[in-house]
Amino acid sequence: MGKAIVLAAGKGTRLQTEGITLPKVMREANGKPLLHYVLSNLSFLEKKDTVLVVGYHREDVLRVFGDYPHAVQEPQLGTGHAVAVAKDAIGDYDGPVLVCYGDMPLLKRSTYENLLSAHEREGNVCTLLTGTCPWDLPYGRILRGEDGAFLSVVEERDCTAEQRKIRELNVGVYVFDCKKLFAALGKLNNNNAQQEYYLTDVPAILRQEGGRIGACCACRDAELIGVNTVEQLRMVEEELRRGQ
User: Fold this and answer.
1) Could you read off the pLDDT of 166-178 as tens digits, one per residue?
2) Which of 18, 70, 201, 218 has the most CB atoms within 10 Å of its CB?
3) What is the pTM of this model?
4) DSSP 196
5) CA 203 – CA 201 distance, rounded (Å)
6) Nearest in space to 219 (alpha carbons), one of 176, 178, 165, 169
7) Does residue 163 sit in helix, strand or coil?
8) Side-chain half-sphere CA neighbours of 210 within 13 A
């Protein structure tokens, strides 16, 4: 079915309240770490095929999820860099690889499976999950050409005022052809406001090389919520309770 890289290295500065120093993915919603929900929904993949990218207080993550292979991102230089450090853990694998975030507990198993299925069915080198949402989420915007074809993703902090009006958001979850992904990561630059290497630049690189890029709208609004603030943590908890 494929492999997965789960990004779980972040500190979650805005969640560091009341003396809590846990990594973001270990903050609890409904009594369980955010990462628990993500890995549960990826359980259709074998543990040995699911690589965790850890960094900040990684011992807290590995104490609970140490039966998964992992890679260490230190220092943390952006999402593109986070995926790149997983290269050795992925090994010589040649096939589809899902890249997702450990702080998005509401994304369902069926969403991940639909994304992987669309990727293989359409023969893409990259398939990204997109969606629209009633909430103001700080996600990258999807840029499309006049014909509606995917062009690139622009991170919110790098958007022009006009680009910020775009409602199609990049959820941050992708499936890539693994070999082509790691080749493209070597071509990233950090010429942006944060001086980081963005995974969101990879689809445009692959497209420039003639690769087919697809976008799969497979998730409902609440699934787009990633936990970056205490308010978002509460929103996620409410959704999880509703789903019980």
Assistant:
1) 988 989 899 999 9
2) 201
3) 0.91
4) -
5) 6
6) 169
7) helix
8) 0
